Amino acid sequence: MGVAQELRKALQELRQPLKDGSLCRWSMAMTNYEGHDSLSAVMTRLDNALMRAEGAGHQEVEYRPSEGAHAEASSSIGEQEWHSRIERGLAQGRIELNVKPGVEVWGQT
């Protein structure tokens, strides 16, 4: 991911203003390749990651791992990171959790 981040930074410096004054955007995606992966599987993952990058509108590299161990490791790391961020936000008073009475939906509270 280090090379991708370096490329992202280099492209960021080359951004050109558009007619409306905003800057052009770059969307980047990456995935891993394992020897048993078909070209179709790799391109599908890249396409998925690129759509996420374009939709997010940020200038970061979107990573879409292959199925299996890489995906499991990636998703568990993501969950741990979100858990840490939420705990930090709560501890710093930047976010708060509120409990509200249950709302009945389809006969259940």
Write the layout of secondary structure elements.
Layout: H1 2-13, E1 28-30, H2 39-56, E2 61-63, H3 69-91
Parallel strand pairs: 1-2
What attributes characterize this protein structure?
single chain, 109 residues, mainly alpha, two-stranded parallel sheet, 2 strands, 49% helix, GGDEF domain-containing protein
Written account of the structure:
By secondary structure, the protein is mainly alpha-helical. The protein has a domain at 2-66. Helices cover 49% and strands 6% of the residues. It is built from three helices and two strands, in the order αβαβα. It has a two-stranded parallel ribbon. Helix 2 (39-56) links the parallel strand 1 (28-30) and strand 2. The protein starts with a helix and ends in an 18-residue tail after the last helix. The model has no long low-confidence stretch (mean pLDDT 77). It comes from Parastrongyloides trichosuri (Possum-specific nematode worm). This is GGDEF domain-containing protein.
